[in-house]
Amino acid sequence: MTLRRAFQTLVLLSFLALAPACGAEEEPPPDDAERLRSAVTTEDILQHARRFEEIAEANGGNRAAGTPGYDASVDYVAQQLREAGYDVSVRPFEIPYYEELAPARLELVAPDARPYQEGEDFSALHFSGSGAVVAPVRPVDLGEPGDSSSGCERSDFKRLVEGEVALMRRGSCPFEDKVSNAEEAGASAVVIFNEGSQGRTGPLGAGTLERPGIGIPVIGASLAVGEDLARLNAEDGGAAVRVAASTVSENRSTANVVAERRSGSEDGTVVVGAHLDSVREGPGINDNGSGSATILEIARKMTELGVEPRKKVRFAFWGAEEIGLVGSTSYVEGLSEDEVEEIGTYLNFDMLGSPNFVRFVYDGSSGPRGSGRIEEVFTDYFASRNLEVRTDSTLEGRSDHGPFAERGIPIGGLFTGFEGTKTEEESALFGGEAGEPHDPCYHQACDTVENLNPRALDEMSDAAAHATVVLAEEE
After folding, report:
1. I need a surface site. Which of 129, 146, 150, 169 has the fewest CB within 10 A?
2. Exposed, middle or buried: residue 27 (CB in 10 Å: 0-12, 13-18, 19+)?
3. What local confidence, expressed as pLDDT, does residue 236 receive?
4. DSSP assignment, residue 188?
């Protein structure tokens, strides 16, 4: 064989080796959604979740808004996003903060001495002031069950002697009015008892004053306790009680964390959100460290991979969700009409790792126009993976998509269940235990990393990453 022929043969063999086999198609390169799904791993999400748990452990066992644990969570998230190259803003807002530092007390000291039981007979009302007093009881225009304006007028307190404990019946005006009138009249403490109509006889444990700054203890009591004190006052010429409450009741500053991609059109911006705060009862790792850790890792991996969709993507970590969607409401209320128009999608991720999980997709039919398309992106993705889902509106108004929906912004999202009980049908489709809560540690101290279901977290985080890119690429 001549050198020339040998060279030609070598070139041909090299070409054949590099060419695809006959009839075979070249594999297309992975798209951005696929690359992002592959890069966002459960282990990386769990690393963030572990950090949130460490923060809670170092700060009294929780990450509630207005506490050092929440502030440390904000610092961690903001640092991670800045290191990933985002424009990060920490946006403060005010919240009413209330905490009981010690159990409240209500005890009869005259004409005889006996205690009432906290939880069974009474509790401090939220935003009660602090203090400890022993003083006579003064009934204030108690009226009749179902028809009482007790304490609603300043004139009701004309017989009250400064320093006495005002005893009032729940009735026709807000608790705040009763307490304000009593405090102005010189009461040293307030006891408000339930009014006595059907269903309103137990202690007023759920009663909530709407503002901090009250300077005296405020106790919510049962009908039986109130009638007992009123009877003793009338029959024996007077009753005296010991009232004590140790509370923090004040306005505090907390914050949202908002991070923006520097690329992409603002027309149709995709906002991806999760609440960062926990309840005070626990570290909040499923609720909602799971959602926060997931979108934090999606954000980090988007810049690491150089994923730059057509539309701008904005990541938001909300504060004070657990006390009434305060952070997301503050953000949305601060948007101008033009800024609202620029947002094409809001995606909410709240509780993505429930141990007895269901794959829930927000029901697009219950959201503003355009929400159905977001639901479709999620359901199509899960169908492509042969994974069952259930559309659900359980979270309607209960999580941070609510304020966006109220402004007409299309919303969607995922969650895996909270205190609701898993049905037999759900158990057949998703596994787990029928008759048990989706998350038995919901709002409890046991909501730790150990409470997370890694499989649920893996599947839901992939769907979250997928939807973020797909919706940010759509025309």
Report:
1. 146
2. exposed
3. 66
4. S
Residue (of 174, 254, 250, 252) closest to 212 by Cα position: 250
**DSSP SS3 for 266:** strand
144 vs 103, higher pLDDT: 103
pLDDT tens digits for 157-185?
999 999 999 999 999 999 999 999 999 99
CATH class entry, domain 98-248: alpha beta
Fold identical between 32-86+261-473 and 98-248? no
Catalytic site residue 321?
A: yes
Amino acid at 279: V
Q: What is the pLDDT of residue 3?
A: 40
CATH 3.40.50.720 fits 32-86+261-473, yes or no: no
Could you tell me which residues come within 8 angstroms of residue 180 by beta carbon, excluding any fewer than 6 positions away? none
Question: What is the distance between the alpha carbons of residues 379 and 390, in angstroms, rounded to a whole number?
Answer: 9
Tell me 420's DSSP state: S
**Spatial CA neighbour of 405 closest among 340, 467, 452, 360:** 340
Report whether 215 contacts 248 (CB < 8 A).
Answer: no
Domain locations along the chain = 32-86+261-473, 98-248
From 164, 260, 297, 321, the catalytic residue: 321
> For 447-472, what is each residue's pLDDT tens digit?
999 999 999 999 999 999 999 999 99
